[in-house]
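Is this the right way to post structure tokens for a design question? Let me know if I should format differently. Anyway, here goes:
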């Protein structure tokens, strides 16, 4: 038996809808890199999901390529993990349709991300936005994933995935593995610097978001401007959203505990603390940015990784899809 067959399967994805943020890095990518040896990992670029919000075609195309380069620069190793573009594997859309027929309107109506996105994009509340979680269920279930690294904002979608899979398994017979979330302690949720009660988002305009490709000066300036409080003490406490967020970032980057950070900055002001956070973040990003620039000059290499990744992923995806087609009763005239 091959090693791979005994490893648990991990699947996750990020929408290539803009430059990835420090939140994507600390909350997702860095953890994906850490689990590559332990699990059989599938990391996708969720480009089908990205068009639920209007995209400029040329920008989306560029962002897909750039995001692949960022995955690699962050340390996703194509020799260990399978990296692919969701849109290159038709089985994602195909399974999503079948699962649409097993997802209830009532369930979809309850999705908080749908409610939130429809209020932010009131002029474009489309069907894709509504069935978005079902496509995500298809992504996960196609690979019989055991574990799905997701941020807390995606837990409701994962719960729905489990419900749909369980419903399908009961209606027919065991078809899908029921996936679980894979959450990590540090950096799980990085908040906006300008409104630390909201998640750091790719689409925020203003200085609340640090992008993975921001220069050192920009990183330091954004962190200097981060919203804090008037208490003046660097300590982790309820209600100190801004400081808590900066402490989480600093802890994720340096590996220091909150207590260590508190004693490091005891008696010092927020200015010193912010500068230290800014430098630590900028230094970590600088390494990655160097790698990114190198990958960006090698289009053929990235294309090759994406093509090979899709070949491997689609083999597994097609297997699950044909099982599903057979169970629901589609007639296969080739058999
Ligand atoms: N919806 C996820 C997000 O915005 C991205 C995503 C798409 C995903 N398909 C997935 C994450 C499957 C995990 C598993 O963060």
């Amino acid at each position: 038996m091959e090693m791979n067959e005994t490893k648990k399967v991990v699947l996750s994805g990020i929408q290539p809808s803009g430059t990835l943020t420090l939140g994507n890095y600390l909350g997702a990518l860095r953890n994906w890199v850490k689990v590559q040896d332990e699990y059989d990992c599938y990391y996708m670029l969720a480009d089908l999901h990205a068009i639920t919000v209007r995209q400029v075609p040329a920008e989306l195309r560029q962002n897909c390529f750039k995001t692949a380069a960022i995955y690699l620069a962050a340390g996703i190793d194509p020799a260990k993990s399978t990296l692919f573009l969701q849109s290159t594997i038709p089985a994602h859309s195909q399974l999503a349709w079948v699962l649409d027929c097993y997802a209830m309107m009532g369930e979809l109506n309850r999705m908080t991300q749908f409610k939130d996105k429809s209020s932010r994009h009131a002029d474009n509340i489309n069907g894709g936005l509504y069935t978005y979680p079902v496509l995500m269920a298809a992504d996960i279930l196609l690979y019989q994933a055991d574990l799905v690294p997701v941020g807390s904002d995606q837990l409701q979608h994962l719960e729905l995935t489990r419900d749909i899979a369980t419903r399908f398994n009961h209606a027919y017979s065991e078809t899908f593995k029921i996936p679980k979330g894979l959450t990590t302690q540090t950096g799980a949720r990085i908040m906006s610097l300008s409104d630390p009660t909201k998640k750091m988002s790719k689409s925020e305009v203003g200085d609340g978001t640090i992008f993975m490709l921001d220069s050192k000066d920009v990183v330091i300036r954004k962190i200097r401007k981060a919203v804090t409080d008037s208490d003046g003490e660097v300590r982790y406490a309820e209600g100190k959203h801004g400081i808590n967020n900066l402490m989480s970032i600093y802890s994720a980057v340096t590996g220091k505990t909150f207590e260590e950070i508190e004693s490091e900055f005891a008696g010092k002001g927020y200015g010193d603390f912010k500068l230290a956070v800014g430098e630590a973040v900028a230094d970590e990003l600088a390494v990655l940015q160097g790698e990114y620039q190198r990958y960006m000059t090698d289009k053929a290499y990235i294309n090759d990784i994406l093509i090979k990744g899709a070949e491997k992923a689609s083999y597994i995806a097609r297997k699950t899809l044909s099982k599903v087609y057979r169970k629901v009763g589609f007639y296969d005239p080739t058999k």
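Format looks fine. Someone answered above. Worth noting: The two ends are 30 Å apart (CA to CA). Residues 120 and 229 are 28 Å apart (CA to CA).
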